[in-house]
Amino acid sequence: MTGARMTTLAQLRGSIERIETHSDTYAPDRVSLGHAEADAALQGGLARGTMHEVFAEGRHSAAATGFVAGLAHRVSAKRPLLWIRQDFSERECGALAMSGWRELGLDPRLLVTVRAPDVETALRTTADALACDALGSVVLETWGDSKQFDLVASRKLTLAARGSGVTCLLLRTAGVPVSSTAETRWIIRSAHSPPFRPWQSWGVPMLDVQLVRNRHGPNGQWIMEWKCDECVFRDTSAHPQPVAAAPANRSHQTSARAQRRAS
Amino acid sequence: MFDADPVADTQVLTDIADWCDRFTPLVALDLPHGLFLDITGCAHLFGGEAALMEQLCAALSRQGFIVSAAIAGTSTCARTLSRYVHGRIVAAGEEAKAVTSLPLFTLGADEAIIRGLRRAGLKTIGDVASRSRPEITARFGAEFTTLLEQALGQSDAPISPRKPLPDYIVEQRFAEPIATDGVITLTLAKLARTLIDAMDRQGKGARRLEAAFFRTDGAVRVITAETGLPVTKGEVIDRLFRERLDAIADPLDPGFGFDMIRLSASRTEIVVQQQRDLDANVHANDELADLIDRIAARIGSRRVLVYLPVESHIPERAMLGVPAQHHLAAAMQAAWPVREDEPPLRPLRLFEQPELIDVPLAEFPDKPPKKFTWRRVSHNVVHVEGPERVSMEWWRSQEAKPTRDYFRVEDEAGQRFWLFRDGLYGEIRDADDQAVSPQWFVHGLFA
């Protein structure tokens, strides 16, 4: 084979490799959640620079807020967090309270919130913010369903997130999942506090976490606890107390609607 | 025939003053019918004083106004002249000569004073000026003497401009009016570069910028943009105004086109040149500030918030949301109370208005509820902790607010609430001094 042909071949191989790395074998940076089984399902952790969706029924909004705040803290790594929310969401689920934020072990100094009058502004602001790589993550919180959350909008957000490496987290309270380009999709409910003795304190954040869509791994459902001191999610079995109630709590009957639409 | 409408007259006069901003930034209203323009140092831009006056008067006459103008060393002298004759320009030092022969009414003094002077046989300003000042003051008051001196150019008459003088102004005039978006943005970008050059020479950065669009038919539209950190880059200004123009509720209407665009920095700050450290932390904060400026330009600075701790034990007062544009640095340094090694005692989501819940009458009045209804859903309480008693800050309000007893509560579905009873039993009394059983509220939700 002559030298010229060899070069051409090498060039072609190179361009094929480039195309492939761009689409399929795109390997983002992953951050472990701390929960062993969930991390295994996620191939090592939550991918940075992509979009993740978190859904919750209206009455579980606070649990979902806690989950998103935890995820944002994990992926942000001491960088500022921009929390964009719709005005209506604040009326419905309450405003973020900094004293509670602090008690979850999170840092209010790194939080900037934006109150958007409508979904359109919120989406636009999110896309703008995702282009700013000084941020660690951007959270977009909305209430209910909206026509604007179509495939085009989610594609835009995904591309913006990939371009800058900033993670985009959507918190969709009382929303129904539609097709999107999200890397993962979660459904969150609050879970019981584990059994405790009368002298023990209770009330650490316990979440019933359901992973209903995962582009690069299996789905799953776990009961997680947010450890306020270490700022990680943990399995409840790691808890020193007996957890008899946990399996009964995986309320398979309640999420039927959300699951069906999600697939 | 129409009735006189002083309010509308003032509005028209203000609009004309806006339009006059193109000649000088110092324009003052002289109600009810006059305007003062301080054209010191501006005349040469329009080809001299005479040319400026001609241009101004021609434009106003075209709009159907009757104009009478004069240029003089003091504002009072010019006003006096313009009340008698149109188009006089008085050279420096010749004010006294110019007004000597004018009748007294042109001074604009009180009617009674003019009548008194005329009765004394003094018909012109020159007549009055020839009398000794103490004599005039004794008879007609010091105010009139001051007015006279100002008209004669013997003392200065300062004007009070409508707007503070911007620190830096750059503008672009067009021989042919422009109307397309492309040209407008290009012009703004070019002006931004010029403005930055001018500020950069003196080590300044802009905190507040104003873009004024002068339409050919006289309408003026001013758009302002504020920034958190002093801006020293033309591209940043350009981007800010793009966002702003994109988001304004009533879009810029070019009509028959703009014949002038002016960009001014109305508030500037000295820029401290910082050495960038290698971990680029300072740089990252700048980028965040830029982003905040852009979002604020689009939806308003009161919608982009950072939080500062407040020393108060009342839950809803423990934090303060402040505009991120102005308080970003303070918020990043804020000292929040240290977390205690316990499960969260404060909710993650707090309702601005605590929401009333329905509690069936408890068997023990002071006990937390076993069951409650919130938003038409009934919840059975499984775990309770409390009360945490919070008394209101009596020094803040006139009427004493009831003490609150807070309870952390978990229901059978695992949802955690923060409830409170507004007042102790027997604390609240109605008009007949009968004890009213206090109401229950949900104030927040735990994760």
Explain the overall architecture:
The complex is a heterodimer of chains A (263) and B (447). Chain A has eight helices and twelve strands. Chain A is of the alpha/beta class and 263 residues long. Chain A has a single domain (32-262), classed as Rossmann fold (3-Layer(aba) Sandwich). In chain A, helix 6 (119-130) runs parallel beside helix 7. Chain A is globular, with a radius of gyration of 20 Å. Residues 240-263 of chain A have low confidence and may be disordered. Chain B has three domains: 6-151, no CATH class; 168-272, DNA polymerase, Y-family, little finger domain (Dna Ligase, domain 1); 349-446. Chain B has twelve helices and 16 strands. In chain B, strand 12 (371-374) and strand 13 form a beta hairpin. In chain B, helix 7 packs across helix 8 (142-151), helix 9 packs antiparallel against helix 10 (234-247) and helix 10 runs parallel beside helix 11 (281-299). The model of chain B has no long low-confidence stretch (mean pLDDT 87). The interface between A and B is large, with 63 and 58 residues. Strand 6 (111-116) of chain A pairs antiparallel with strand 9 (304-309) of chain B, so a sheet runs across the interface.
Q: How many H/I helices of chain A?
A: 8
Instruction: Report the average pLDDT across residues of chain A.
Output: 84
What is the arithmetic mean of pLDDT of chain B? 87
Count of discrete domains of chain A: 1
Give a brief outline of the structure.
The complex is a heterodimer of chains A (263) and B (447). Chain A has helices at 3-23, 36-41, 61-76, 87-93, 98-103, 119-130, 151-164, 256-262, and strands at 30-31, 46-47, 51-56, 81-86, 95-96, 111-116, 137-143, 167-173, 184-190, 206-214, 220-227, 232-235.
Summary tags:
heterodimer; A: 263 residues; alpha/beta; Rossmann fold; 9-stranded mixed sheet; two-stranded antiparallel ribbon; 8 helices; 34% helix; globular; disordered C terminus; B: 447 residues; alpha+beta; Dna Ligase, domain 1; 6-stranded antiparallel sheet; 12 helices; 31% helix; 27% strand; elongated
